[in-house]
Design brief:
The protein has about 160 residues and is α/β, with parallel strands linked by helices. It has helices spanning about 10-20, 25-30, 30-45, 95-100, 145, 155-160; strands at about 5-10, 45, 60-65, 75-80, 90, 110-115, 115-130.
Length: about 160
């Protein structure tokens, strides 16, 4: 795991907390990679979406990674599990590499545990970051709502 403090937006943190306390996660049961994500969230620096640095990997960001063993480049979009499709380059935040890149910056080199052992890679580019483009809530009816008993964050605020 990386040791440098990662940066996460408050919106991403809330959605990830909803996910980690969801029935979906309870069904998959206790697994190491979920503990890794929980640990990353505990030590993360939390910022408002409009204050996140432009070079940070946030949810729904598209990034180019360099595998430091093979030197090959890989491009992924970091997404919530229900939107994952590795054939389309949509990497779940619950996948080991997805957890590893969340909150990291361009130029960061990471060593992360994957099912096959350890993997080392570098974040080469952030091709797209929603917050950089002024998109602070990509899917207000999406991920947060699916993991919180059907209510979105916006609906919970209205009801409260």
């Amino acid at each position: 795991m990386s040791q440098r403090q990662i940066i996460i937006t408050s919106v991403d943190r809330d959605r990830l907390h909803d996910l980690l306390s969801s029935e979906f996660v309870r069904v998959i049961g206790p697994v190491e990679y979920l503990d890794d994500l929980k640990a990353e969230l505990r030590r993360a620096g939390i910022v408002p979406p409009e204050k996140v640095p432009r070079n940070v990997v946030t949810m729904n960001s598209s990034v180019v990674l360099r595998d430091l063993a093979s030197r090959e480049l890989e491009t992924y979009t970091l997404v919530f599990p229900e939107d994952a499709d590795i054939a389309q380059g949509r990497l779940s935040v619950l996948a080991p590499v997805g957890t590893a890149i969340l909150g990291q910056r361009i130029g960061d080199e990471l060593k992360w545990r994957v099912p096959e052992g350890w993997r080392r890679f570098k974040i080469e580019r952030v091709l797209y970051q929603p917050e950089r483009e002024g998109v602070f809530d990509i899917d207000p009816e999406g991920a947060a709502g699916r993991f919180s008993g059907g209510m979105t964050t916006r609906e919970r605020c209205i009801v409260s």
